[in-house]
Amino acid sequence: MRPEHYEAVRDLDDDVEYHRDARIVSGEAEETVKARNAICVVTAGTSDLPVAEEAALTAEVLGNKVVRVYDAASRDCTACSPELEPLIAPMPSSPSQAWRALSPASSAVFVDCPVIGVPTSVGYGASFHGISALLSMLNSCASGVSVVNIDNGFGAGYIASQINHTGFAAYKEEEKMKILYF
C-alpha cells in the first residue's frame, strides 16, 4: 500500500497504523487469541524486508509472537534453530551462494518444524521477477517445506499463524517457535 492509500483508509478509520517497511495498514482486533509459541521470520539479505515485514506483521496481528532474523546470510544459519517451529523464508529471485545455504529446503534440515518458503520478485539476471525462486522452491524434495506465491508475505504470515494456533505445537512439551522463512 502506498502512503496516499493509507491516507484514504485513515479517513475512514483513524485507529489504523501504516507500516512503511511492510507497505501495509493494520488495525486493532477486538479480541485476538494469543498463541503460545513464536513464529520466526528469516531473510537471507535485506532486499526481502518488505515481504518479510508483511509476513511478520500479519502473524503479530493474528496473535503470534514473532522473532525476526534478517540478513541471516551474513550470520550462522543455525543460530536460531533450537527455538524454531514453523519458519517463513522469503527467497530473492536471484539467490547468491550465501542464500543457497539458507534456502527453505536447506533450512528444513536444521529445524523440527514446518518451513514456509516465500519467493520474492527482487533480483537480477535471469530472475524473471521471482519465477526462478518459485520454481526452485517448488522443485525441492525437502520434507516439511511449503511454498506460497511470489511476494505473498500476507499468505505466509497467515498460514504460519494457522499452524501456530493448531494443535501442532501442543504435542511438544517445551515451548518452541514457528518459523517463517523469506
Q: Quick summary of this structure?
A:
This protein has helices spanning about 5-10, 50-60, 95-100, 105-110, 130-140, 155-165; strands spanning about 15-20, 25, 40, 65-70, 85-90, 115-120, 145, 175-180.
Secondary structure class reads alpha/beta
User: How big is the Rg?
Assistant: 16 Å
The CA-CA distance between the termini, in Å, is: 20 Å
Strand content: 15-25%
How would you sum up this structure, described in words?
The chain is 30% helix and 20% strand. The chain has six helices and eight strands. Strands 3, 4, 5, 6 and 8 form a five-stranded parallel beta sheet that branches. A hairpin with a 4-residue loop joins strand 1 (16-19) and strand 2. Mean pLDDT is 75; it is low at 92-101 and 168-175.
